[in-house]
Predict the structure.
Amino acid sequence: MGHREELLAGAQECLHDKGWGRTSARDVVAASGTNLASIGYHFGSKDALLAAALVASTAECAEAVDRALTDDPPLDPPADDVSALPAGDPLDRFERTWERVVERVARDERMTTATVEALAQAPRVPQVRSALAAAADLTREDLALTFHAAGDDDERTRVLGAFYQSLLIGTLVQWAVDPAGAPSGHDLAEALRMIVADSTENT
């Protein structure tokens, strides 16, 4: 591992342990076993290094979510072939998938801490904001196609993906700030069942 990779790993460790505002260049040097000159040489500044570290953490989180989603194959039959959809209760599939997301991502403190830190810095750090936006575009589509058949309606995919992404980010934030009260995959599925039941009763 070269100095650049060591600096990134050290910066990720500092962001997890101390956060952006409390991390100094010397903290990163101590965590990475490098030197102050390496920060300037490879990244130009401490803030640029921290931004790169957050981008790397964001990518790792997105990859972990993708692995959790793709354990079950995405629904991708022809748009008009309803028979090609997997059998079973869609909410059961929803529950299984979100249980994996919670177990592999939300319960990982490093993942949730990185998510909250990235969300906090995105409005002020263009590099972080761009990385989050790019990850969001990919994750929205992946989430939509995990639970729904592919079709030609891009707006439908976007809206469905945005809904699931809201669940994802909200779940990660809740696990970061209140693990005892944060929802499980079962909780999320039960909430949807309640919404569907209430909607049916009121029609």
Summary: The chain is about 70% helix and 0% strand. Residues 25 and 46 are 6 Å apart (CA to CA). Confidence is low (pLDDT under 50) at residues 73-87. The chain has two domains: 1-44, 54-201.
